[in-house]
Design goal:
Elements (H helix, E strand, L loop, with lengths): L18 H21 L20 H10 L4 E10 L36 H4 L5 E10 L3 E7 L4 E7 L2 E6 L4 E6 L24 H9 L6 E11 L2 E10 L6 E9 L5 E8 L7 E9 L17 E4 H12 L7 H10 L2 E4 L6 E4 L9 H7 L1 H9 L1 E5 L2 E7 L4 E5 L4 E4 L3 H11 L1
Parallel strand pairs: 6-12
Antiparallel strand pairs: 1-2, 1-11, 2-3, 3-4, 4-5, 5-6, 7-8, 8-9, 9-10, 10-11, 13-14, 14-18, 15-16, 16-17, 17-18
Helix pairs in contact: 7-8
């Protein structure tokens, strides 16, 4: 068979989507990808085989449709996790934030009873370094994700209305109910399962990236690969906008069932992938029922996640939602806004604080200026002055007046955005 030739997807070919939806996803997805890269998940290469399988030709449009119509409900496998954003390793204790199992903050807050078992407490650990995940699913009501480290294991188990999170390191289990995760629900995971950890598979990351398709994106089929012992097509996604720091996203798609098996995001600066996702092995047979059973080990501290959620609701309002923290952010900081288009979208936060120390402040304090110089470089323009903090994928400009500009864009794009907003 002839090799798969690159075929590009354009807006004209995507007539099934409304203009309104296309506009929305173009603005939202690049920022979402940047957020995932900066704060949460990256999965490592799936050890592709040495040979490229000989598969029938397929267009990019048809391969995208194959992913969209894939209805794999059952699988189990192992995923290797590595991120290389140019960030220092971050201890898991820094990850305890809003969220937890109830969608509120109680279960995940620092010092909370269930902090060590809260999914949020594990997110920062996945922001750098290499990790191993074991995953399993049997329809929308049964999932299991385990993060396996050398000395401990952390697991989230969802079975019907029961959700457990267990941290073997602290021997702590967090139990919660999932009232919105019945058989009629369209959600693949209950609200109690962390919105961050639920995206810890190649499938979820690939679907997010594909939403960016439009006039700012080139999508082609770029050959084939062997991933986790299975034949796969390789979908290549490239931003067309020069200011984007994303070089490319490569998705290996199972040729038989359309399941993304590997997700690799490479920065435009080159080098190792910043986010790399892949199964090292995968089985699409029905997992054993015992996979989704959990009983706290003897002597484990068991925390009632529902009570933690109730505390959060009393503290933050009766209808505290998973995104209540973002609403508080908008209120406290005077609003979070997204400017720009496609992959060069930039999130802006006004009123983030008193701003960085000025030259006068540094002359008095000295140490503050030296510390900031070690973290970021000085920047100036008609907006005034500030500092730019960089990773291999995401850059952020914090002005002296306390406004933040952040995105998967180059430094000049941030300065231009600040100048335009002046």
């Amino acid at each position: 068979m002839p090799a798969n030739e690159p075929t590009e997807v354009t807006d004209a070919e995507d007539g099934g989507r409304s203009a309104k939806r296309r506009k929305a996803v173009r603005y939202a997805v690049p920022v979402a990808v940047a957020g995932v890269a900066a704060a949460t998940i990256g999965l490592v290469p799936a050890f592709a085989g040495s040979g490229s399988p000989d598969l029938p030709k397929i267009s990019a449009q048809d391969l995208i449709a194959k992913i969209a119509t894939s209805d794999v409900q059952q699988l189990s496998g192992t995923v290797r996790v590595t991120t290389d954003l140019g960030l220092p390793s971050l201890p898991g204790g820094l990850g305890g934030g809003a969220g937890g199992f109830g969608g509120g903050q109680g279960a995940g807050e620092k010092g909370g009873d269930g902090a060590s078992a809260s999914p949020q407490s594990k997110l920062m650990e996945l922001a750098s370094g290499a990790h191993t995940l074991r995953v399993a699913a049997d329809g929308p009501d049964k999932q299991r994700v385990s993060i396996v480290d050398k000395a401990a294991e952390y697991s989230i188990v969802h079975n019907g209305k029961e959700v457990w999170a267990y941290d073997s390191g602290s021997n702590t289990a967090l139990h919660s109910t999932a009232p919105d995760a019945g058989r009629h629900s369209k959600r693949k995971v209950p609200r109690g399962l962390s919105e961050g950890l639920k995206d810890a598979t190649p499938q979820d990351l690939a679907k997010q990236a594909l939403k960016a398709a439009g006039d700012t994106t080139s999508i082609t089929v770029d050959g084939t690969a062997k991933v986790a012992g299975r034949d796969a097509y390789q979908l290549l996604i490239k931003p067309k906008q020069a200011a984007s720091t994303v070089g490319s996203i490569r998705v290996a798609v199972d040729a038989a069932n359309g399941t993304p098996l590997k997700f690799t995001l490479t920065p435009k600066s080159g080098g190792a992938a910043a986010i790399d996702v892949g199964y090292t092995n995968v089985d699409f047979a029905k997992p054993a029922a015992s996979t989704f059973s959990f009983t706290p080990p003897k002597g484990a501290k068991v925390v009632d996640g529902d009570k933690e959620r109730a505390k959060a609701e009393r503290a933050h309002g009766k209808h505290a939602a998973p995104h209540a923290g973002m609403k508080d952010l908008n209120k406290d900081f005077g609003g979070l806004n997204v400017i720009g288009k496609g992959w060069t979208s930039i999130a802006t936060i006004k009123g983030a604080g008193p701003g960085l120390p000025t030259g006068k402040d540094q002359a008095v304090g000295g140490d503050a200026g030296k510390f900031l110089d070690s973290l970021g470089e000085k920047a100036s323009g008609s907006f005034g002055s500030g500092r730019i903090f960089s990773t291999r994928l995401v850059n952020a400009l914090m002005t002296d007046n306390g406004t933040i500009y952040v995105g998967a864009v180059d430094k000049q794009a941030l300065i231009d955005a600040a100048n335009a907003a002046k």
